[in-house]
Amino acid sequence: MARKILWGSLALAPITVLVHHLVEPSEVAEFVLAAAALVPLAWLIGEATEHAGEHTGPGIGGFLNATFGNAPELIIALLAVNAAKTEVVRGSLSGSVVGNLLLVLGFSLLFGGRGEIDRGSSLVSLGLVGVATLLFLIPAVPSWSGDPERHGLALLSLPVSVALLLLYVGVTWYALRRHRELHVADPEGGAWSLRASLLVLAVATVVTALVAEILVSSLEVFAEEAHLTEFFVAAVIVAIVGNAAEHGGAVVVAARGKLKLATEIALASSAQVAVFLIPAVALLAWLIDPLALSFRPVELIAMGGGAVIATLLLADGRTSRSHGVALILAYVGTAAMFFLAGDR
Question: Which end of the chain is less packed: N or C, by CB atoms within 10 Å?
Fold first, then answer.
């Protein structure tokens, strides 16, 4: 019954797009409609990733979900760059790293319970987040005094972005080859073909990007009515919206007992945002308006601290619901920290 409701509610996505362009409702109404439309889309991405994972293994399945799931964030970030909302860009990206590390992983472990994960792959992803956080200090520290948007900091962000992208390519190539060697495809009965799974992932990602853009465009009015700062909206609300696919996908597969895949989704997505999406946005922004990676201290503390907390909890390669609760509480504390930080 629940699956039928989810399949039927996929119609909310085209309805949201049509209403946005033809009816032009209030921003609050658009926010609610778009948020509702993202739920079945997140489920569909999780469903397709699970079927793809039957052919590729959890490591590559997590990589696929992270890649497709982060596409809306890239689009949202570039739209924000074009609108000269640099704090929204940085806040949403840093919030995405933290959200995947603590919130998505936390709920995955809460629903998945006890189990074993790929310890090596998990520690590599967490290590990438740690390295990225350290490299972000290069343009971030000088930004804590003077104009954080000055051109010199955008130039300083270039070598950092290139280094992170090279690191991402190298680690990803090694990791995917390792997972291919470890995994022998043995699809369960009824699993979609790999081609069908990838096609559904691609289509769902495009539609998710359209719906997420509509939701983000209505967030400013929503935030004003809720009396929230722009930084909090970016680092928490926009980040959660942009990660809707990973949120739903990871929890769905975790609830079905596939903790390895769920963990890969959360950690691979967090690492991919840190070492691929952030530097990619910084480089692509030069085609629109140069973007400095001038992260605030609270953002770097949140990213680095999130990586440390997750590492301590997953160091033995085992999971539990208590670990999930600890990660969720850590995210609540981080969100409170973002709220108290206010705008720059």
Answer: N
Which CATH fold would you assign to the domain 59-185+227-341?
Answer: A middle domain of Talin 1 (1.20.1420)
Residue-wise pLDDT tens digits, 14-33? 999 999 888 878 888 888 88
Extents of the domains making up the chain: 59-185+227-341
What are residue 116's DSSP bridge partners?
318
Q: Inter-axis angle of helices 27-56 and 244-255, to 10 degrees?
A: 50
Band (pLDDT 50/70/90 cuts) for residue 184 is very low
Rounded to whole angstroms, the Cα distance separating 46 from 44 reads 5
Most confident of 37-51, 64-78, 146-160, 191-205: 146-160
CA separation for the pair 89, 177 (Å, rounded): 33
Assign 140 a pLDDT band (cuts: 50, 70, 90): very high
Alpha-carbon distances, residue 163 vs 26, 167, 171, 203, 262 (angstroms): 44, 6, 12, 31, 28
Distances (CA, A) of 42 to 68, 252, 309, 337: 11, 9, 26, 28
Helix/strand/coil (H/E/C) assignment for every residue in 196-243: HHHHHHHHHHHHHHHHHHHHHHCHHHHHHHHCCCHHHHHHHHHHHHHC
Give per-residue pLDDT as tens, 305-339. 999 999 999 988 888 899 999 999 999 999 999 99
